[in-house]
Specification:
2 copies of one chain form a homodimer. By secondary structure, chain A is mainly alpha-helical. Chain A has one domain: Methane Monooxygenase Hydroxylase, Chain G, domain 1. Helix content of chain A is 86%, strand content 0%. Chain A is built from 7 helices and no strands. In chain A, helix 1 packs parallel to helix 3 and helix 5 crosses helix 7. The first copy, chain A, is flat and about 65 Å long. Chains A and B meet through helix 2, helix 3, helix 5 and helix 6 of A and helix 2, helix 3, helix 5 and helix 6 of B. Chains A, B: This is Phosphate-specific transport system accessory protein PhoU.
Chain lengths: 235, 235
Amino acid sequence: MPGDHSSKQYDTDLETIRSKVLTMGGLVESQFNDAMDCFRGGDIVKAEQVIKSDETVNSLEVTLDDACSHLIVKRQPAANDLRTVVATLKVITDLERIGDEATKIARIGKQLHERGTVGVLNHYESVRVLASSAANSLHDALDAFARLDEKLAAQIIAADETIDNEFRTTTRATVTFMMEDPRTISAALDILWVAKAIERIGDHAKNIAEYVIYVVEGKDIRHTDYVYTKLNSKP
Amino acid sequence: MPGDHSSKQYDTDLETIRSKVLTMGGLVESQFNDAMDCFRGGDIVKAEQVIKSDETVNSLEVTLDDACSHLIVKRQPAANDLRTVVATLKVITDLERIGDEATKIARIGKQLHERGTVGVLNHYESVRVLASSAANSLHDALDAFARLDEKLAAQIIAADETIDNEFRTTTRATVTFMMEDPRTISAALDILWVAKAIERIGDHAKNIAEYVIYVVEGKDIRHTDYVYTKLNSKP
């Protein structure tokens, strides 16, 4: 059994990793915001920065996975503590995939502006609500992970349904544009791919929220109706 | 330090988990094949089976994550052994997401046939090559994971570029259909969403292959050009 000293060391090491994961989270959050800026305003330089910073996100993924492994081997945590490390390993994967989706958005934004097809459709307006919901979920997910706030996590999971509905609304509206004026098809498809990327960022935020609840409650609530029970229960 | 006995127990426990992960892999592979069958032939019963079996895949994810955690706590593996458990945890996530994508394909196939829009475009033909490449990659990835075959894993990673190219070919062809005859727009979008799901299954197969190399080589090759060096090196 690890003594007090070892357990304190474990806590310190874990906090170091968690704070680096939050740095990674801040980075992908900026990537997403900048990618959306670029999709709206056509800032090519910003788009290239998003694409470039994906390298940093990728190397953070590798470094932090490694740090988690080292922590396990060195401190041999008990079941309760291990749960946090396992959840952190999974969160790191979700953050890296959010970076990938942001990079896709930046690439499409860049193309849109290079081809000069920005004005064809009100492309940013089509995804504005969806993007703002996903950005909120991501921000809250990082907050919930930082403070291990299971109440906030439950709200994020419930909000994913709204994001999915907004995605369907965007899709329907965009298809209507295409049908009314087939010259908009190319531009409309760019909107659809961006909407898909945003919807996936929402999914990853939801995954992170599920891992927060797993850490706090010691209960794996993935694929259950735990959240609905939780949100509807009396305080 | 764990003695010989403990280390043997670790090996036995690990093999049990790995064999269950392969069962999960076989299940999502069937889901993908059945979903494609349904997209081609409109077998609604099969589509519903795919959607239903997603529950099994989801509960396998939770059970196997748990088994990995128990293994770590009980056997306290050394760095080398731990690498396999960490990679297995990540593989489990990719398998579950493959199940999600297969379920999406089954849902679209079901809708397509319920709406009677099957004949509008040669929808299956549009994704046939892409689907077959992704199915091969997934099959090989499970094989590479079963036999810890890093050579095969390197081939899968290299093949992902082909899959991405096939995805772009499908997209271009489908957009041409839409432009030539706007009445095909709805049916064409179904093809695009299915193509996207297949492309992602290819991505997950690639992720699994990367974890295989991480286990065998003890080297994290994600986001590096390791594979190209490896494939081009003299034996």
